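call fold target=DUF4386 family protein
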Amino acid sequence: MAREPVGSSHALAFGVLGMAAYMASPRPVEMLTLAHAYGQAGDAERVALIAVGDGMLATWTGTAFDVYYFFNLATLLIFAILMFRTPVFRRSTAIAGVIAAVLMAVPSNFGLVGTVFALLSLVPWAVFAVLVAGDLARLVTPKEAVAATASGRDG
């Protein structure tokens, strides 16, 4: 039982590092600058600007993006596994998290297979998010209110 805070800390660290990697991957300001330059460029310059833009897009879906993807897979997987060990979360919540994490094992930029896995991962991810919200809401709902609601439904 004492290892859960360590596991949670590891999951949180993976999540923070994953988001930091993701924030380093998009290039919105650079792309906007290229778009303005493209609008004012001649034909020869436009060819060069398109090549630079393609490079920017490759950077966005490159190494930093993959690091983000795998670190957030690790985050979700660790949290889901830890959920099996606590009475706070239902088993179905943890299972949905594990399924979403497994489907995140192939990053979305890995061609058609990656796109399919990414889209499929959204279904258990959405279920997981809803179940987590419900499990956490039960923590803050007074037991008297739950009992009163349950008895009101029975009558």
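return ok
The chain is about 85% helix and 0% strand. The chain has one domain: 4-25+61-154.
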